[in-house]
Amino acid sequence: MSSEGHIHHRKDYGKMELTEHDAGQDPMALFGAWLKHAEDEGLPEPHAMSLATMGSLTISCRIVLLRSFDARGFVFYTNHNSRKAMDLERDPRVALTFFWPQLERQVRIEGRAEPVDTEESDRYFASRPRESQIGAWSSDQSRPVESRDALEQRYTRWSERLGDGTVPRPLHWGGYRVRPVRIEFWQGRNSRLHDRLAFEQLSDGKWVRTRLQP
């Protein structure tokens, strides 16, 4: 990096290509194939995705984990009192991004988030490790805390309060499903002539595919 702060590192891409034939007409099927490839390759945190939300004054972005997906959309879980959840209550429009650098691939998703039903949240919460379940009760996510010790003391108190039985799901914790209206797939190629295929959903639910210039 120069004294002016410019980064001069360059990397050429060219491991794979993305053709219309390989992409098909269903972006959710293509996403599933790409995610499985990332899992099969043993990539670190292949389910990690950036989540961008509209705050009261600014746009906020953070990494969350994809917990499930199907034709309806992409599901993640959080505290309903967290900053991201409050953002979603004000404005459900969101953007997601997956980046798998080892595969030279990126997926960008735009859509609207909505809460999943209580049964779906209950099922997922029951599958979590007990320590994570207690953490959901003990943490007022995004709120200030005076120290790390205070946070751990809260966890200990809740652990004692909940005892050894089944930990119920807190009412302030649950899932959101991002229903996509636009999904773009990016595959790195040589000479910066990357492959970009965008899918946009019509009012009848059908997807229209378009190749974009890099």
Brief overview, please?
The chain has 214 residues and is an alpha+beta fold. The chain has 6 helices and 9 strands, in the order ααββββαββαααβββ.
Write the layout of secondary structure elements.
Elements: H1 20-23, H2 27-40, E1 48-54, E2 59-65, E3 68-70, E4 73-79, H3 83-90, E5 93-100, E6 105-115, H4 118-127, H5 130-138, H6 148-162, E7 173-187, E8 195-201, E9 207-212
Looking at this protein, list some descriptive labels:
214 residues, nine-stranded antiparallel sheet, 33% strand
Written overview of the protein:
This protein is of the alpha+beta class and 214 residues long. The chain has one domain (20-128, 170-212): Electron Transport, Fmn-binding Protein, Chain A (Pnp Oxidase, Chain A, Roll). It is built from six helices and nine strands. Strands 1, 2, 3, 4, 5, 6, 7, 8 and 9 form a nine-stranded antiparallel beta sheet that branches. A hairpin with a 4-residue loop joins strand 1 (48-54) and strand 2 (59-65). Helix 5 crosses helix 6. The longest helix has 15 residues, at 148-162. 21% of the residues are buried. The model has no long low-confidence stretch (mean pLDDT 93).
